[in-house]
Prior knowledge:
single chain; 286 residues; TIM Barrel; 8-stranded parallel beta barrel
Amino acid sequence: MLSQEGRKNNMAKKILKVNSLNELKYSSKLDGYILGINKFSCLFEKTFSISEIKEFIYEHSSKDVFVSFNKMVYNDELSDYKKTLLEVDKLGVKAIIVSDVAALTYGLKTNVILDQFHLNNSYHTINHYVKNGVMGVVLTDDITKDEIEKIRQNTSCLLFKNVLCFSHLSTSARKLVTNYMNYFKVKHHSKSYKIKERNKDNYYRIVEDDFGTHILNNKVLYLMDFHLPVDYEIIDGYLMDKNVFKDVLTNFYDNDKMKDILTSKYELTTGFINHETIYKVRKDER
């Protein structure tokens, strides 16, 4: 049987990836929150300490609260990583979201959600992780609706999906922005920048943090129209204009209004949801 505890009336719950405390004023209509944690989260504009998370859970006890450890972890960080995971394990959050599968060996009592950016796209792999203690996965953005439906039909795993965000494209541990600025003797003047493909009109967002450099789409992924067969839909205003995202949250569940608000500032995209990826491995090449 499918374990669709996240769904309400056969519709996915909506959860906000928190990038500022100000967002909380306008997100009461949503079902829960994803919090970043100090030192072990990336692509969050705000992260929280253990004590702040504990207080947050108390103040939002009616909501599903998730904590994200989505940063890749180096060997010299493993001891602190495990210690912090075990501390969060005692807080009573709905689930802990991780990228590093080492977390599965720590005996966590809290449900574990696996978020590996571009890797969760096959029910065979997902079911393997379920057998090893994973309760849910964040599906990649590089996936079609048909593929999501096939996964839904073949796994009991809880499914999470980004439905409003600047999609992640790639990450490098190198400080690419800093290296560029130093080479050309340019001062940093923004938390994020845009880069353009040579000989094309495609722009991408580039941002650097303590881990390295991340490339994001310049178009807003918007999948609210599709009513995907997942348990949780993730709303993420990372790097969006604060006033625009505030208006989106204020008008949540008014789909036409939300799209009008977003298109006043950004171009929208549905990504791969209705388009198969161009490159496929042939059967005789596996």
